[in-house]
Amino acid sequence: MRAVRSSGTVMCLASGAAFGAMAIFGKLAYSAGATAGTLLSGRFILAALVFWLFVPLRDVRALARRDIAAGLALGACGYALQAGCYFAALERIDASLLSLLLYTFPVMVAVAAVALGRERLAPRRVVALALASSGLALVVGAAGAGTLEPLGAALALSAAVVYTTYILVSQGVAARVAPQVLSALVCTGAAVSLTVGSALLGQLRPGALSASGWGWLACIALVSTVAAITLFFAGLKRVGPTTASILATVEPVVTVLLAFLVFGERLGALQLVGGALVVSAVPVLNARRRNRALVPATAPA
Q1: How far is it, in rounded angstroms, from Cα 247 to Cα 13?
Q2: Residue 295 pLDDT class (50, 70, 90 cuts)
Q3: Could you tell me which residues come within 8 angstroms of residue 39 by beta carbon, excluding any fewer than 6 positions away?
Q4: pTM score, two decimals?
């Protein structure tokens, strides 16, 4: 059991690192000629194809039609909108700032769950909300006028709000559908809606991508989507939801570190303190929780 938990810890950390690297891959793809539409469409088309390779046909046949429709709709509406906000924000603000603004979603989920009557208001949730709110104020407020693009910050927070809604809506479906099947359905729905939307908006321009751009897009799809989700599910089985959600806090840390190493992005001292407060809200939120976690089975981005 100790070995199983250790391997699960490694898997969860690797998943968080893979998700955390997505903003870096996205920035590099933008510099290689990618548009947001090309990245979004390419990411989910490739991810869906890979996921379907590992989904037995009998698992799909066993699903109720309403669950298939729900999975596709979650991708076409919720996940597609969240990803769209994320990559649109990535065009406007630093990857490190985006990751910290986005990571306010666990506390948003907790607050929404209390408001909807799904959870009780507990002291740890109040503390977590205070930590995340204070951290968010420092991250945004400490940014200079030249370093914080208002629309980019608004898009990042919108991505967190949309993902919060996606989590709350998808809980019922996730309880009935196997993770790998749901991942395939969600990615398929997102691929269809984002491809059509990007084409209509003139943002689908795969011909503008250089060879390196295709490589970074493949990294987003295979490393930061397929591998990240698969590793998270595998780790989740071994360590449980509480530990898995706490280990997921490595995601924004990895993004901030890679953004510094690759692009030289620097956060101010107050922003680093704010980021630490945002990240620390998740372990506080999960204190003494043993049977479930509010962090979703599929990570954001």
Answers
A1: 6
A2: very low
A3: 26, 29, 30, 87, 217, 220
A4: 0.85
